[in-house]
Amino acid sequence: MSETKAQMDTMDWQQLKLDMQAAAESLGIDKIRISSADPFVELKDILIRHREKGFESGFEEKDLDKRTDPSLSHAEPRSIISIAVAYPSKLTDAPRSEKGAYRGMLSRSAWGLDYHQVLRNRLQRLETWIRERVPDALLESMVDTGALVNRAVAERAGIGWTGKNCSIITPEFGSWVYLGEMITNLPLPSDQPVTESCGDCTLCIDACPTGALVGPGQLNAQRCISFITQTKGHIEDDEMKKKIGNRLYGCDTCQIVCPKNKGKHWTQHPELQPDPEQAKPLLLPLLHMTNREFKERFGTSSAAWRGRKPIQRNAILALGHFKDTSAVSVLSDLLLRDERPEIRSAAAWSLGQIGGEEAVLALQNAKEREQDPIVMKELEKSLCPSGS
Predict the structure, then answer these.
(1) In 189-210, which positions are buried (b, 16+ CB within 10 angstroms) versus exposed (e)?
(2) Strand partners for 247
(3) Known catalytic residues?
(4) Does 73 map to a domain?
(5) β partners of residue 82
(6) Distance CA 349, CA 331 (A)
């Protein structure tokens, strides 16, 4: 019998699990729970129907088998360790939007250091802790960029339950938690799922700005502001452009209204604490920000993963939302000179929202030279009173 097999046969796995959970705080983890590594059969059926309805965001792993079968990510899956790290929900000393100095907003998931880095760090600490006790353990860690659906793992493991807003809601921390998991060949005993639920509450569904929550735990990502703000290219839906408001990245509405989140705010992880000027930046300086300047300003945030273009486009829409007359000259310059059609179409829409002689003149001048059909369509709508 090999030394490794002998150790595996004699290890007290229940005690190892308890010791691991007791060590969570020292590892910078707020909650550790264990699930089986069985395939998520029922989830696959749900995901198939989700795809058939056209509700996917396009950011997901395309292979549904990889999303639901741990054996496709790990050679010997016997259990999955699920972790949660709580993040802040309140911005202390938040700067205000003022006339001529309007600000946008990053969602809480983009505050502080990119949570992918934080979660990978925590999982690495946990891997080290395990290998000190089981040197030959097979471990495969992943954050939400991994193939598996981390919310399904967290729910099965007992981290929390899936709320009607599609977030994992924990009894201790509400839904203000980041999730990660580690597939292992260790036969760790499973924890029990959380029995608490949302009950009859539908506040999140009722509050969703675009009706993207089409039912309890059902999200049409094509209507979700959080996903729309992260897309590249044009946003052609006028209603969506209005609903985005001054959101530059993400949307927290369905979590803010959740009663399970009331009064919950977490500050135990310094690297997740927000810089107010990064979380609520001035809009106008964003419009001419270079790639280098964007990386210097936002490169540490999870909002940087899609680059500066979507955030600049969203900032332009926000200026239209505020009807900021002081932005007309800058928007006019973008409309006439920017090489990116998605920026020009956003500028045309915002100028139409702001209105006034200067804005109309800029729209008319642009219409005489514009070649892109989508931008031209936006110009025509903005110049028509019924389309503004």
Answers:
(1) ebbebbeeebeebeebbeebbb
(2) 105
(3) 144
(4) yes
(5) 33, 181
(6) 10
Q: Flag whether pLDDT at 6 surpasses 70.
A: no
Confirm whether 382 is domain-assigned: no
Cβ–Cβ < 8 Å for 315, 330:
no
The range of the structural domain enclosing residue 268 comes to 1-90+111-238+251-275
- Global pTM reads 0.92
DSSP secondary structure string for all residues of 140-160? EEE-TTSSS-HHHHHHHHTS-
74 pLDDT more than 80: no
Q: In this structure, is residue 62 part of a structural domain?
A: yes
Please report, as a single letter, which amino acid is at residue 47: L
pLDDT band at 277 (very low <50, low <70, confident <90, very high): very high
Strands 31-36 and 79-86: antiparallel
Tally the residues of the chain: 388
Range list of H helices, 141-266: 150-157, 203-207, 225-228, 238-244, 253-256
Q: Does any domain span residue 71? A: yes
CA distance 88 to 109: 9
Over residues 286-332, the pLDDT tens digits come to 999 999 999 999 999 999 999 999 999 999 999 999 999 999 999 99
Q: pLDDT tens digit string along 221-236?
A: 999 999 999 999 999 9
Q: Give the HSE-up count for residue 95: Cα atoms under 13 Å, Cβ half-sphere.
A: 19
Angle between helices 341-354 and 328-337 (to 10 degrees): 150
